[in-house]
Amino acid sequence: MTSILTNNAANTALLNLQNTVKSLDKTQNEISTGLRVSTAADNASYYSIATSLKSDSSALTTISDSLDVADSTLATATSAIDEISDVLSKIKDSLVTATTQGADRTKIQSEIATYQAQLKTISEAASLNGQNFLSVDSSATGYNDTASFVASLSRSSDGSVSYGTITFSKTDTALFDSNGDIGILDKVDSTTTGSFTNADGTTATATADGKSVFNLDISALTDEGADLAMINAYQKQVEAAIKSVTAASSVLGSTQSRIESQKDFVDTLKTSVDAGVSSLVDADMNEASTRLSALQVQQELGVQALSIANESSQSILKLFQ
């Protein structure tokens, strides 16, 4: 039946054309933005997952940057502590020289004092980004003995996020501590015993006189057996300090190694997360381009079909001519 009130063919052609235009607009938006899921309306599930993953990716970038700073800080401390080990060895050598009878201990002490000043200077200079693990003040307000570095991120099934850290105790690395001189190098020693065998076979002994490696002084010591025994006690004190400094260096070195390894993992994880986001929301440009060409053809055909359907109504006028 032909009707002048309803043109079913035109309505059908118009509906098809509208659907084609809608699909064409969506495809053009994908091409212009590069995203097939740009809003929650496109795919609520994918959009939600991608948003969480993007947040994690941003956090991983921040963690990676933080680990970079931590690596540099520890590298500074490690380099400084290596220098300090060398200086301690020089102090030990000077003390060995001082055990020789007739040695000018005033002059030797002048050399040792220079080395002692270097110990302090190097330790205080081993600071980066406000962090110094060699020279501390454990009595300072807000001081925390635990050095902590954010190293990882994990998201549980309920969506909550937790962060993992790499830590070590500053007590193990502090060479100087202003809080009562309790660092490795400024800690006083009143227990180490030294000895010296005299020419007559007798042994003189002496106990460390409450000084630290940083402020020991041999300038007033003589060739007497007891004084030479004190120098031997100082030697043992420095040797013990070298061992402690070596242990501190191991703590810093192992922590730095963990941080470098963790940074590599974080960077790899971020790459994987970014790839996951891409697979969820990015448009396949090859597919979108092919679909765009097809829809453009469909649009042209739809316009022609609608035009033909509208012309069929005009033919009714000829019946009344």
Automatic annotation (TrEMBL):
InterPro entries: Flagellin, Flagellin_C, Flagellin_N. Residues 4-135 form the Flagellin N-terminal domain. Residues 237-320 form the Flagellin C-terminal domain. Keywords: Bacterial flagellum, Cell projection, Cilium, Flagellum, Secreted. It is found in: Secreted; Bacterial flagellum. GO terms for molecular function: structural molecule activity. GO terms for cellular component: bacterial-type flagellum; extracellular region. It comes from the Bacteria. Pfam families: Flagellin_C, Flagellin_N. Belongs to the bacterial flagellin family. PANTHER family: FLAGELLIN. Flagellin is the subunit protein which polymerizes to form the filaments of bacterial flagella. This is Flagellin. It comes from Rhodomicrobium vannielii (strain ATCC 17100 / DSM 162 / LMG 4299 / NCIMB 10020 / ATH 3.1.1). The lineage of its organism: Bacteria, Pseudomonadati, Pseudomonadota, Alphaproteobacteria, Hyphomicrobiales.
